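User: Predict structure, ligand zinc ion.
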Amino acid sequence: MNYILMGPPGAGKGTQSKKIVEKFGIVHLSTGDMFREAKKSDEVISKLLASGQLVPDEIVVNMAKKRLEKDDVKKGFLLDGFPRTVNQAQELDKMLKSENMKIDAVFFIDVCFEEAVKRISGRRVCSCGASYHVDFIPPKVEGKCDGCNCELIQRNDDKENVVRDRLDVYEKQTRPLIDYYKSTGLLVNIDGLKSESEVFEDIKNAS
Ligand SMILES: [Zn+2]
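Assistant: Predicted complex:
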């Protein structure tokens, strides 16, 4: 089976994608991994990523295309981080059609704006690698790591104003894509406010 996983930052996509690929024995195709791989051999992509600029559709599509041509994809895949725009989705459709493949479902883990803000802006990390959340996984002593007693910090990306900007961008970019998959009948809305295991149950039931 071939699936797409979508959801705003804070929706818990990382956890769910691990569960999905394990359960169905399919390959995880994340654009994050693809970019890391491409960076090693492709100077154009490497420069783009280093500059922090948005990578143009054409490059993302080509990268996905190359990945989808590999043999392991035949056993099924979960796309994560791609497509991100309607144009990319249409290119993906063409690509799959020419290979006689198709998408079976698009799981959209829906989390409302304020919940996503709360989940991300509450994250705290320690330089030892431990992570916490002020509401959900609080350290024993406020602001201190349980393991090494160091001062916990909030990543810049997790600061509330930055999170709000990221979510705004996501909303603008992704809403048309959600409508697109709704119109093709592939969209499965998953309530991301439920617990991790309940969310996974809902995904399994819809697959
Ligand atoms: Zn620590």
